[in-house]
């Protein structure tokens, strides 16, 4: 099972920081996803891309978490060499993450 | 109970026009706001103004006004926009001219000024937020410095009876907060209502993104009639409570899911969204479906606004040279990698001084690197991009990729190349009292 099977997300950028919201389709999945999808795990997943810290903010009433990834965009939209200047596709990369339950 | 309906006319400078026309014609709105000024746009606009004093504002403004102004006049809709960019005075002048040409005599057009703080910044000691370095370190490369104004001067313009309010740099939510403050007479330290108004602005400012844009995914997140995606409007009551919807019959969808995605878009800590008007707290926001394409939002609050204003600084950063070439069929990935290796060696042979470089294989690893990408593709596109200190060196990069046509792997196809100047953006903070907004209203 992939994160894509239980959640959707949207990616935004501010300077050289990316933020990825992760929102579960079914509120019943929220608590165990919160236990699994820690900031440390997200930082590890994006180790080759995110060079700063990863913070997580929780909004349980919306079944949502907001991950904030510092130093993640090659200098930010105005000067990065990346094809994806805003890092808009990073959320899609996260949705490709395998989850440990079936 | 009195309610105000505010529409979102654009999510960015190049956005579609028909959804804005649809909102003006059928949305039953009293205000239509166009958010068209990305962070870097104002620095590029400043450069354009330096070359030509009649330039430096939104290039689509006249195109929009020709359709929108007559409908707005007919339906009593007032317009607020940041399309003034680096030259609000010229944008106001041209708007007056367009209004007269369209026979809209008496149209009141207000300009909001005071966001340009370049002289103030150059005369003081400030630090770059992102790096901690002194602003003086980029002084001779500085192009622009614009403070994010709050809703105050727009409220003043509406109080003067302006039908159209044109600003330069202003916080995006402020475009939407101002009509609510004007209509309901809220105090500018009514933090909770300003927090709720900020939520309204934050959800509306990206146009179609609340209606299924940047959301749709076949088989999972269905969005009807995406080619006719509607733009959103909010119906706001005097207590700040808000209903989000769109014109009946337009494409797209508004649901708690689209609203939740947009709530967190470009947000850091949801409990501390810093704006010039209020520190908004979205951490307890809830959404409730209230019929098809109708969502009620509640729970935003706020606390005292920051003492400083954020200032965007545009500066000449570097140059960027890029070239791309495609390969397809058996061995496409291997030929693409060979192409990248050849260009890498060529740039060494010619002694190009690369400040930074990327060698990507689009279709394999360009977006997320080798760790998250995967091998195997029918077609790939090799992409070389290099940061340089001069435009001449940037041009060499694309040229070296182009020489692969006759000197590189078999079947190299469809070369594209570009070389351009890079304007970088950083931020600093300026004490609020050093920024003095002012409003001038003119009549067509």
Please outline what is shown here.
The complex is a heterodimer of chains A (102) and B (444). Helices cover 20% and strands 27% of the residues of chain A. Chain A has helices spanning 30-36, 39-45, 90-95; strands at 7-14, 17-24, 54-59, 64-69.
Write the layout of secondary structure elements.
The complex is a heterodimer of chains A (102) and B (444).
Chain A: E1 7-14, E2 17-24, H1 30-36, H2 39-45, E3 54-59, E4 64-69, H3 90-95
Antiparallel strand pairs in A: 1-2, 2-4, 3-4
Chain B: E1 3-10, H1 18-26, E2 31-34, H2 41-51, H3 61-75, E3 78-81, H4 88-101, E4 108-113, H5 118-122, E5 142-147, H6 152-159, E6 164-166, H7 172-184, H8 191-204, E7 232-237, E8 242-246, H9 256-263, E9 273-274, E10 279-281, E11 286-289, E12 295-298, E13 301-303, E14 308-328, H10 332-349, E15 356-362, H11 369-372, E16 379-388, H12 391-402, H13 404-407, E17 413-431, E18 438-443
Helix pairs in contact in B: 1-3, 3-4, 6-7, 7-8
Explain what the structure shows.
The complex is a heterodimer of chains A (102) and B (444). With 102 residues, chain A is an alpha+beta fold. A four-stranded antiparallel sheet of chain A has the order 1-2-4-3. Chain A has helices at 30-36, 39-45, 90-95, and strands spanning 7-14, 17-24, 54-59, 64-69. Chain B is built from 13 helices and 18 strands. The longest helix of chain B is centred in the C-terminal third of the chain and has 18 residues, at 332-349. Chain B starts with a strand and ends with a strand. The model of chain B has no long low-confidence stretch (mean pLDDT 97). The A-B interface holds A 8-10, 12-17, 19, 21, 23, 47-49, 55, 57, 59, 61-64, 66, 68, 75-79, 81-84, 89-90, 93, 96 and B 39-40, 130, 214-215, 217, 220-221, 256-257, 260-271, 283-287, 317-318, 320, 356-358, 360, 362, 366-372, 383, 385-387, 422-427.
